[in-house]
Design a protein that fits this description.
Elements lengths: L1 H33 L4 H10 L3 H4 L1 H10 L2 H24 L5 H29 L5 H30 L1 H19 L16 H14 L3 H29 L4 H8 L1 H20 L1 H18 L5 H33 L5 H13 L1 H16 L1 H11 L2 H7 L23
Helix pairs in contact: 1-6, 1-7, 1-8, 2-6, 2-10, 2-16, 4-6, 4-9, 4-15, 5-6, 5-8, 6-15, 7-8, 7-11, 7-12, 7-14, 9-15, 10-14, 10-15, 10-16, 10-17, 10-18, 12-13, 12-14, 13-14, 13-17, 13-18, 16-17
């Protein structure tokens, strides 16, 4: 039963991730080629997709703990499908604007926050603890495969059909995901009979994360990395189209390099951390990420394409090793009754940095150019290894599961 439920959960995520990867190419190309968006407008669109992590991540952990998981996930898939479908509809009637793309990104972003917290909370209910690392690696690998194939398919579809019609692929993927998720079992964990105030529950999760000697530093590392990722999300399409003059097919292929790196990272994470240790693995991966980020905006002509792809692969390998290792650790180390709030707290801080990075990058790319701005943000990735080296993690081989704060230390 557990295996069957996991594979249905996996199939739903794979379908929607593939659609989103296609849409991730089609939406910025819609802004650039249909609406002639500026660098700052591209920053706004990218930031809007992640602004919800700043606004509702913390209450999302409480909401997920209180409502039926399956019903909420199905509803959120339907909301995302309708939001994406509104773009081709507006285009067909001649009413599409950059403001609507920003609004759609906001709606999808809010739905993503709730959905992601619910999805990660649900996984430990259908997978034994001993299999969590492997299942997380498989899920990251599958997501990487969709990121590898999706942008390439998206670039080809945009070349053949146009940017706006290609967005319908994303709409259909959310509908398929909703159908699959509807077949999952209801949550096993009993919801509490008492309902403390939401603010109290949020503070419990917040204090647990901040006082945890492993989860806390890992969150700050992810925050520094995601700030740079926000700049990349905002500027990559703009850099490729406006400064490297890449056609849609080439844009899709180059963006797919991120998926190739993620696939390699997912395949190597467990073997790598088994050999060098989970704590040491985090530090090594953080240094590798610095090198990848600095390579991305180098070169001109064909060399620029090669540097972009190579740097993207290296940076993505690093990001996946960091993500899989810390995500698995959170699932194993957090008390079940706090897990959704721990996930929400981490997302609020770390993913909340993405829109800030996107907005700043969009503002800087106008006067400085996309290449220079990407180099500046690439240099900021040095904060990642510095954070880990400034904590007790630097003296460990593996991350200890007994490092959780005592109950008295998280009392609010």
């Amino acid at each position: 039963m557990k295996l069957t439920a996991f594979w249905r959960w996996w199939a739903a995520g794979t379908t929607s991730h593939l659609g989103s990867a296609v849409g991730g190419v089609a939406l910025p190309l819609t802004a650039l080629t249909v609406l002639d968006a500026s660098a700052f407008e591209m920053g706004l669109i990218a930031a809007a997709g992640y602004l919800a992590y700043l606004l509702i991540s913390l209450p999302a952990g409480v909401i997920v703990q209180r409502v039926p998981l399956r019903g909420m996930q199905v509803a959120l898939d339907l909301i995302r499908a309708l939001a994406i479908a509104s773009v081709p509809l507006a285009w067909w009637i001649g009413a599409l604007t950059v403001a609507q793309l920003v609004a759609v990104a906001l709606v999808v972003g809010f739905a993503n926050v709730l959905f992601d917290v619910a999805n990660q909370t649900f996984l430990p209910e259908i997978v034994p603890a001993a299999q969590l690392q492997a299942r997380n690696s498989l899920n990251s690998g599958t997501h990487a495969a969709t990121q590898l194939g999706g942008p390439s398919l998206g670039g080809l579809a945009v070349q053949l059909l146009g940017a706006v019609p290609t967005l319908l692929v994303d709409t259909v993927s959310y509908l398929v995901s909703a159908v699959l998720l509807r077949t999952l079992p209801a949550r096993r964990v009993q919801r509490p009979t008492e309902r403390p105030p939401m603010a109290t529950m949020i503070r419990e999760g917040w204090h647990y994360v901040l006082r945890h000697p492993i989860i806390g530093p890992a969150m700050w590392d992810a925050t520094a990395t995601n700030f740079v990722c926000g700049a990349m999300l905002a500027l990559f399409p703009y850099y490729l189209v406006r400064e490297l003059h890449a056609p849609p097919v080439m844009v899709g292929l180059l963006l797919a390099a991120d998926g190739l790196g993620a696939l390699i990272g997912a395949a190597l994470t467990t073997r790598f951390t088994d050999r060098v240790g989970t704590a040491r693995g985090l530090i090594v991966a953080a240094f590798v990420g610095v090198a990848g980020a600095l390579i991305i905006p180098l070169g001109t002509g064909t060399a620029a394409y090669v540097a972009f792809a190579a740097g993207n692969i290296v940076f993505s390998v690093s990001s996946v090793v960091l993500s899989v290792t810390t995500r698995t650790y959170r699932m194993l180390a957090s008390p079940p009754e706090l897990l959704s709030r721990v996930i929400a707290t981490v997302k609020f801080v770390s993913w909340g940095a993405i829109p800030l990075g996107g907005l700043l990058a969009g503002a800087l790319a106008g006067p400085l150019g996309a290449r220079t701005t990407l180099l500046v943000f690439g240099a900021l990735t040095v904060l990642s290894p510095v954070i880990y080296l400034s904590t007790p993690i630097r003296r460990l081989r593996d991350l200890p599961l007994d490092a959780a704060p005592r109950p008295a230390e998280v009392r609010v």
